[in-house]
User: Fold GH16 domain-containing protein from Jatropha curcas.
Amino acid sequence: MAEPALHYETQPKKQIAIHYTPEASNHCPVSNSITLTYNHRGGSRWRSTTRFLYGTFSSLIQCPKGNTSGLNFNIYLYSPEGDKSQDEIDFEFLGKDKTVVQTNYYTKVEFKFNRMVDRWEGGERRVEEGWWTGSYVGCDAPYVCLYKDICVPAGTAVECSSDS
Assistant:
């Protein structure tokens, strides 16, 4: 059994900030859910209004239906964006196989990339070294990604400044 001290308490995330295209995001604090719509305008990005020193983060993610080749639906953790010492951990759903998760982590000293993507042979629908090389068609747009039961660490919060 794992060390009990490593199982940190979590709490529902009730407040978020939306970085761009707010009309493409719908946040419902009551149901603890966020829906993002990807269409001809692009998508949106949400973030916590709080920073956390450490802990356990979780969310149920329902990827969009249809052919999502060329799109990236994800959840990631990062230290202050734009800071030279930025650290980041990514969990990304790429393309139409929503059962495959790609993980990356980046620290100020190194970049590690753990690719878990099946490749397609031939044609423009392929992935080369983790980069999409095909064209994006958006044949099933709009795409809706649902984040539910978003939980963040309890007791390790540090408030962000309003411009963070």
About this structure: The chain has one domain: 10-158. The mean pLDDT is 77.
